[in-house]
Amino acid sequence: MVSKGPQLYRLILETALLCIVGLGTGLAVNRHIAVQGFDGSLVEAIKQTLQNKIKEKARPASEVAPAGDIIFMGVEQAKELCDSNRSLFIDARAPEAYEAGHIYGAVNITEQTIEDHIFELMDKARESKVIIYCSGPECPQAIELAELLIENDIKPIHVYSGGWDQWQKLGYPVVKGRGR
Questions:
Q1: CATH of the domain spanning 61-175, picked from 3.40.50.1000, 3.40.250.10, 3.40.30.10, 3.30.70.270
Q2: Between residues 165 and 60, which one has the greater pLDDT?
Q3: Hey, which end of the chain has fewer CB within 10 Å, N or C?
Q4: Residue intervals in the chain for CATH 3.40.250.10
Q5: Cβ-defined contacts of 66-72 (< 8 Å, 24+)
Q6: What is residue 85's predicted lDDT score, i.e. its pLDDT?
């Protein structure tokens, strides 16, 4: 009977050698990418590529409002736009606050999740008004998110300054949970 120990040892050795040769070949062929990965320039190149894609997808300058200012609106105008379905309401509050209750039809987008939604927002902004709100007049999240959108050429941006607190107090349509 033949012992399997030496055969198993040889198989493990050949597999390890094959992995080392493969890794070395891969690094040699892609050394410019490996070097960029170690010195941080690969991350910068990826960021630049993403920014270029955002600019390509952005609306032409002729369609953009002058200066891209934030336009503040009151509760009457916000309610009218909500009822007409000609707008996209964005709740800038934390996901837990959104799930506890939000304006009917609103989506939850925060500064932390903006990158996941940027292309969708560019498309939506062409078709309808983008209205951001948070808790109320003292809440900075809506303005901070509006500024981020403007930096990404999504203009004009409307901010409903009364926010969730005013909307809820007036008994306007609300939803609880993750749904719209």
A1: 3.40.250.10
A2: 165
A3: N
A4: 61-175
A5: 68/150, 68/153, 68/155, 68/156, 68/157, 69/156, 70/143, 70/146, 70/147, 70/150, 70/156, 70/157, 70/158, 70/159, 71/156, 71/157, 71/158, 71/159, 72/158, 72/159, 72/161
A6: 82
